[in-house]
Amino acid sequence: MTRDHERHQTGFRRNIRLRDGSLLLIRSFSLNDLFSIHRMYSSLSAESKSSFHPIFLQPKLRLSWLLDETLQVLSCVSFVRNLLMKIFPRAVYLSLVVLNSQQKTVAFTYYKLRKRLAGNGFEAEGGTVVKDDYQGRGLGLELLRHRADFAYANGIRRLRSWVHADNIKMVHLSQKLNYQKVGLVQRRNPQTGKLYSAWEMILQLDCPENTAVKKEATIGE
Which domains, and CATH codes, for the chain? Predict the structure, then answer.
């Protein structure tokens, strides 16, 4: 294993063809992507930011931001990540970036492990954001499909997410991939401090209806 590979959270790497014929690359997150995801996030519209606001992209939160940013970095180092998955899985981030033909980041998705499940594997929570000018082009659905494969390849067997109630498109996309609604809950936006309504949704990756996800799950492509 090369040092460059160790800086990537896995060797996950796939191509995505959009409806308009555009070819994008989805791959595992690396240390070199830190600046680009911050730059992409700063360019998002207020509407997009309202639906995606992880702490590691909120430098105004200072201490919390520094901690989560550090965990992102540590999760890029394979032996550290593997150790944390054994002793303290809640510290582990697993992320993917999507690049266009100019090698610009146009989408980002991540998981943060929540706990080890009683049977096998982990439960994780996460989020996804697509750059405004790439929304409505079929990237969201493709990204959700691939991130489920990525999750399974990394030992995740249950995905939990909170989708802004106003983000009808993401709710529908999630349901297409067998996410189940748990209920409508109140969440707090760390950027504004305001409460908002969100659908708590769960995907069981070891359910029979999700065997297509398991069959396609690969690591080290």
Answer: 3-216 (3.40.630.30)
